[in-house]
Design a protein that fits this description.
seven-stranded parallel β-sheet; alpha/beta; 11 strands; TIM Barrel
């Protein structure tokens, strides 16, 4: 099977042989590994002044780098995350990735349209609105979902994309930013509609959120995404417990502790990797990854240590 086919079988919780599928939402250490600037670290202040040939060099390099990361680390999926917001540029990015890699990798983009943790500037106003303007807040939530589905329908016509990563964060380390009852009112119905709408268009969905999701995990699972990422151990989320409770309902992705990858000992990292594999693999429906992403500042050698253990021990017979 291709890496994409393995990834889809994991999303469907179907039996597979060989290595446990793996990917990362973002691999930022492209300068350290390849001597090439990651796309989100580029600043296209002069984009409008560039010639067509200059623009195309950037487009091609961004797509090639995404595929290079996947090939190097044997990722099964690519999360296409260019700086571009223009629809035509998004499609061109997906086309270039497919031109370089064919249909070998599962290809996804960000596609969340639900409320996430407000920033410090907006937190107070959002809290007031939940109490004083619940109807307006719900109306806005509906509009955001409808707009996302309209865009997805346009994208679906090109046959380039396999799914969406829904990257609205709902939780802090201590728990969700709103109560479970509020979550059931202002987020869950719209998340469920978004996921079903994507499914109706033929897309898979991976729901990402950091933090302690345990107070709302029932609701997340009931919204029926294909997978849940990232099962944050820094917030006390135990993959063994999540697997026991929900492993027959949803694919799990994660959950090697990013904090230990940066500041722990090699022995702690090795133990963390083995714990994730030991508890994620049984019964299939598991995709190996960090508990967030390979972020700027993480030592490259720690990620490569993690991946060495995955290659040696993350194998189905």
């Amino acid at each position: 099977m291709t890496p994409k086919e393995m990834f889809i079988r994991a999303l469907k919780r179907q039996p597979i042989t060989g290595r446990v599928p793996t990917f990362e939402l973002v691999f930022f250490l492209t300068m350290e590994k390849f001597g090439r600037l990651h796309e989100t670290h580029r600043r296209f202040y002069q984009w409008d002044q560039m010639s067509d040939s200059e623009k195309n060099l950037h487009r091609c390099d961004i797509a090639d780098l995404a595929v290079t990361v996947a090939r190097t680390y044997e990722h099964n999926a690519i999360f296409a995350k260019p700086n571009f917001s223009d629809f035509d540029e998004i499609i061109r990015n997906l086309e270039l990735i497919r031109e370089i890699s064919g249909d070998r990798y599962f290809l996804m983009r960000h596609g969340d349209a639900t409320y996430s943790i407000p920033n410090g500037t907006d937190m107070l106003e959002f809290s007031y609105r939940m109490a004083d303007d619940a109807k307006g807040l719900k109306s806005d939530a509906e509009k955001m979902v409808n707009a996302a589905l309209e865009k997805a329908e346009k994208i679906s016509k090109y046959g380039l994309l396999d799914g969406f990563a829904l990257c609205a964060d709902y939780c802090l380390n201590t728990g969700p930013f709103m109560s479970p009852n509020q979550f059931s009112e202002f987020v869950a119905p719209y998340l469920e509609k978004l996921i079903q709408g994507y499914r109706d268009l033929g897309f898979y969905t991976i729901k990402h959120t950091d933090g302690n999701i345990m107070p709302i995990i029932d609701q997340l699972v009931e919204c029926k995404p294909d997978a849940l990422h990232s099962l944050d151990p820094q917030a006390g989320v135990d993959i063994a417990e999540v697997k026991r409770l929900y492993g027959d309902k949803i694919c799990l992705i994660g959950n090697v502790n990013c904090g230990l990858l940066e500041s722990g000992t090699d022995e702690e990292v090795e133990a963390e990797v083995r714990y994730a594999l030991k508890n994620g693999m049984p019964g299939y429906g598991y995709i190996f990854s960090t508990s967030n992403c390979v972020y700027t500042g993480m030592p490259l050698e720690r990620y490569e240590l993690m991946m060495r253990i995955w290659r040696e021990e993350g194998n189905y017979l």
